[in-house]
Design a protein that fits this description.
There is one protein chain. The chain has 180 residues and is mainly alpha-helical. It contains seven helices and five strands, in the order H-E-H-H-E-E-E-H-E-H-H-H. The strands form two sheets. Strands 1-4-2 form a three-stranded antiparallel beta sheet.
Length: 180
């Protein structure tokens, strides 16, 4: 883990907050964390929140969810990139490397944020995550990034437990690169 990076507990807390809603945009997650900070009478550091989300996504505790995997009160949500920055409307779901936990006072967030009922099609999400894992593995192999490859090797096991997918081919490529 990178020095100064958010802890595993912090990533799992982020996943726990997202899990309360099934999925959140980055902007909604940032707002939820700001609301928690207010309830806990602490200051909000938006840069630290952004960095924590980035680490959680990089380590597959949170995963970008394709729109076709999302529903909001039974319909596909309209995520409008024109109304905010493109990163802010990326929907995030709990990923295979997460062990979701709830930070103090998080149980109040559904009442505070008042978002519509949401759902994630796990099969569509799993396929997207497997595709991302393959792309990330190729990039790490190309860059000879052994630290990243070690992280991704762990994710290949996590994803098989998390969803009915086979990451064996990706894992074999990663292990071959690490051993070579």
């Amino acid at each position: 883990m990178t020095e100064g990076a958010p802890s595993v507990a912090a990533r799992d807390d982020l996943a726990g907050v997202v899990d309360l809603f099934d999925w959140l945009t980055r902007a909604e997650l940032t707002r939820a964390l700001s609301e928690l900070a207010f309830k806990q009478r602490t200051e909000v550091d938006e840069a630290a929140i952004g960095a924590a989300i980035d680490v959680a996504v990089a380590e597959y505790a949170l995963v970008p969810a394709p729109v076709e995997a999302l529903s909001e009160e039974g319909t596909t949500p309209a995520l409008d990139a024109d109304s905010a920055g493109a990163d802010e409307v990326v929907a995030l779901a709990v990923g295979p490397a997460a062990f979701p936990s709830l930070p103090e006072d998080a149980e109040d967030l559904p009442h505070i944020l008042d978002l519509p009922d949401r759902d994630v099609d796990r099969r569509v999400l799993a396929d997207a995550v497997l595709e991302r894992l393959s792309t990330d593995a190729v990039a790490a192999i190309t860059e000879r990034d052994h630290e990243r490859l070690e992280t991704l090797a762990d994710v290949t096991y996590d994803i098989e437990t998390w969803a009915p997918v086979d990451a064996g081919g990706i894992r074999e490529r990663i292990v071959s690169e690490l051993d070579g």
